[in-house]
Give the backbone structure.
Amino acid sequence: MKVLVTGATSMIGRITVQELLRCGHEVRILQRGDSDLDVEIVRGDIRNPVVVNQAVAGCDVVIHAAAKVGLLGTYAEFYDINVKGTENVVNAAVDAGCRGIVYVSSPSVSYSRIPVNGAMNPPATDDVLGHYSKTKSLAERAVTAESRIATVAIRPHLVWGIGDAQLVGRIVDRAKQQRLVLVNRGEAIVDTTYIDNVADALVSAAERIGVQENLRGKALVVSNGEPRTVASLVSSICEAAHISCTPRNIGLRAAVWIGAIIELIFKLRPNAEPPLTKFTAYQLGISHWFDISETCELLQWAPRINLDEGFQRLAESYKPGGLD
């Protein structure tokens, strides 16, 4: 099977490419910069239909992981990449006669202010916070409604692992600077996902899409299936990094209020990332964990690295000679 992976510079994209190669598949990647991955590279932007068509040609399946993430940028910037760019990928895959598309989405397309306690793959909605979630929700719904080609959306939840500069990196940096804050004492219960499990799920989806009919049009949450409190997860990350964990506490209502004010202030500083937004306040302050039984059944997949093993691996990476 020949697979195009977009966004291979991300942690998800990179580890997925490595897993595809380990499984014996041929891989091409589409990205703007260079890569040290031993695969065929097409350089360019998913907003350029000509480049996307070139990248997709001759591939059986596309794993579309490229996206604009984070908090920086205008809605138009997020829309151009996450919605229009995805549209280019879908059209190119249809024109090239690919058998399927695996779209990397996010559980944040399905919730914002209301806790999620064990729901199974709730539908994407307009009622979400932040440019990222709003545009990913639009793109996911367009992909899963596509009638010209088999599609499936995979929603990895709070992904982390060795070398992670997002979840792990930010927690470690703030702990070192003694700026770590928990919302509602970190009592919210959340799912997270060790990176290797995400790669396994994406490869499984790529192998089945267009072959296994009951995958078509589905949106499936991927997580470790081990919900824990935010406080416990933050403590485990700090322990793995060998730093003290002494967070301050703030209530959810106050966090949302402060986040809203910070968002207004940072609109005047478009190149600076706000330390808190309404979206991140809710992410830290409300429970969001999911029933992954349908995901496991349809993908014939299960997490092979549990959280404790993941934290052990993370701790090893922070030892002298490991990744720091």
About this structure: The chain has one domain: 2-317. Residues 75-96 form the longest helix (22 residues). The first strand starts at residue 2 and ends at 6. Residues 33 and 43 are 6 Å apart (CA to CA).
